[in-house]
Amino acid sequence: DTAVSQTPKYLVTQMGNDKSIKCEQNLGHDTMYWYKQDSKKFLKIMFSYNNKELIINETVPNRFSPKSPDKAHLNLHINSLELGDSAVYFCASSPIGNEQFFGPGTRLTVL
Amino acid sequence: AQSVTQLGSHVSVSEGALVLLRCNYSSSVPPYLFWYVQYPNQGLQLLLKYTSAATLVKGINGFEAEFKKSETSFHLTKPSAHMSDAAEYFCAVTTNTGNQFYFGTGTSLTVIP
Question: What is the pLDDT of residues A54-68, one digit of tens each?
Answer without folding.
Answer: 887 778 899 999 999
